[in-house]
Here is the input.
Amino acid sequence: MAGGRIVAVLAARGELDAIARARLLLGDSGLWLAIATNNALLLLESVSARKALDMLLSLASRADIAALIAQGAICVEGAFFLRSGAFARLATCSLSGLSRQALITGQPPTPSRRVPEAVLYAYESRLLRDGNSPERLAAKIATSAGGVGAGVLALEAQKRPRVILAASNRARLCITHLGSAALAVLEKGEGIEPGCRSDAVARLEPLRRAIRVMHWGIDRILYT
Here is the structure.
């Protein structure tokens, strides 16, 4: 799959159609999967599409879920303090390797500077430490760090998980509403298809057996 793809699935309990549709968008192996449900974050690396599908279907049959699935992307997971003081676990993916600017900003230890995941983690850590929100983190990874698009799954204690997706002008973000579920796809390309956008940030979160989706222009997130 040239260029990679990041897929987000948010579904109320028992809403399985979005998961089946997500399976059709992905290759057969090498998936990176993060699933948030019931204040827990589950991470699976280099899994097959069948295993990912089985895991998502099993969890979604019993609880609301938010999932970030990536293939051909750079992904990391970690625990951080947000600007509000809240302790959160974040799963973060970038559609491309980051620039030298991100390397200088993040300052990973010298032995790790050639590891794309280390550069992404160091850059993310620095931005969050400086008070950036997960939304601004995604936008900066997608633009000023030399990236194309980024996805962040954020889980704070006692709060519902949220997924943030950011697309630069070299990527497109397409979101489909499916009743009590939503499916979002982030990939390289211009946002010319119906329901697709570029230079945009979207936040998706479950709310009373519905999925709330909010959109912003990427410049609004970066500069206000």
